[in-house]
Amino acid sequence: MKAAIFDLDGTLFDSMWVWEKLAYNFLLEKKIDSPPNIREELKEYSLRESCDILKERFNLSESPDEINKQMEEMLKKYYFEEIQLKEGAKELLEKMKKEGIRLVAATATPDWLSKAACSRLGIYDYFEIFQTCESVGIEKFDPKFYKIILDGLKIKANEIFLFEDALHSIKAGLVCGLKVAAIRDESARKDWREIEEVSHIVFDNFNEFLEKYPDIINL
């Protein structure tokens, strides 16, 4: 392994509990009944793209940009104060950095929120590249998102591991030829079977990864 691309929410961050209720709580404030599967409908999209969908579907009076601003404010407290790293995450990043593995953060979460959380949790400086959907204007289900990272690293795709929890992002990485190390997150439970079928390795937490696959870091 010469480089590793890390998703944040659901992978490094124990944060999917925030996103599971975000759209529901937003619509509740507007006194709009939210369909039970609203999170499922939006999960492949960045926050900004989700705002376009919510605007059209529920005929909201605010513009998508205004909706986005309101939802980001709802998220601010969580990213600035509450969200924590998953078990063993920082230890893995430290070990990889010491071994000379180049590290990339790749997230659909807005730039200012994700960077604030990484800084608070002491991991921001580990990343050589910090790419968000917002910064490149591409969703994570689009292989072009990872192609930009590959162009920046100038490393062969098969020498890079993508650490992810979401099936749509895993599939996009595989199209680019990346190896996939999938971490099980409860939010993706219904996709676990397919994730296990397509990923190179699957694990429950980063301590397990370090215990079972120490040689991968030295590849």
Relevant CATH superfamily of the largest domain? HAD superfamily/HAD-like
The CATH C-level class name of the largest domain: Alpha Beta
Order of helices and strands: EEHHHHHEHEHEHHEHEHEH
Query: Structural class, from helix and strand content?
Result: alpha/beta
Which percent bin holds the helix content? 40-55%
Overall outline: globular
Strand order within the widest beta sheet: 5-4-1-6-7-8
Uncertain regions: pLDDT < 50 for 5+ in a row? none
Task: Provide structural commentary.
The protein has 219 residues and is α/β, with parallel strands linked by helices. The chain is globular, with a radius of gyration of 17 Å. Helix 9 packs across helix 10 and helix 10 packs parallel to helix 11. The model has no long low-confidence stretch (mean pLDDT 94). The strands form two sheets. The chain has a six-stranded parallel beta sheet with strand order 5-4-1-6-7-8, with helices on both faces. It has twelve helices and eight strands. It has two domains: 148 residues, HAD superfamily/HAD-like (Rossmann fold); 67 residues.
Layout of strands and helices, then pairs:
Elements: E1 3-6, E2 13-14, H1 16-20, H2 22-29, H3 38-42, H4 47-58, H5 64-82, E3 84-85, H6 89-98, E4 102-107, H7 111-120, E5 129-132, H8 133-136, H9 143-153, E6 160-164, H10 167-175, E7 179-183, H11 192-198, E8 201-203, H12 206-212
Helix pairs in contact: 4-5, 5-7, 9-10, 10-11
